[in-house]
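Weekly puzzle thread! Below is a chain. First person to post its structure in token form gets bragging rights.
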Amino acid sequence: MIKLFRVRGASMHPEYGNGDYVLVRRYSKRPRGRQPQTGDDVICRHPKLGTILKRISAQTAQGVTLKGLNGLSSDSSAIGEVPYHLLAGRVVARIPQKH
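Winning reply:
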């Protein structure tokens, strides 16, 4: 399943701009399906921050650490490790905002 999300903020600038849209594909729940990988850009449903777009920087058996591309972005050093079940999916395409 693919969903459309709108980017808000500059945490993933310069790759994703405020107002861009991203197409997100859910990760497979099947053992052989596509699973989260380091380097994936993901949508996460964080319990305190809401829906966020970040990049997976590392993984453990329990979850992932996330980072933004902008140096001022909140990342896992501030928000902690994120369990896999909070990942909505990985970004498969960006639709730039029209100027």
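Puzzle host: Confirmed. Bonus trivia for everyone else. Residues 19 and 48 are 22 Å apart (CA to CA).
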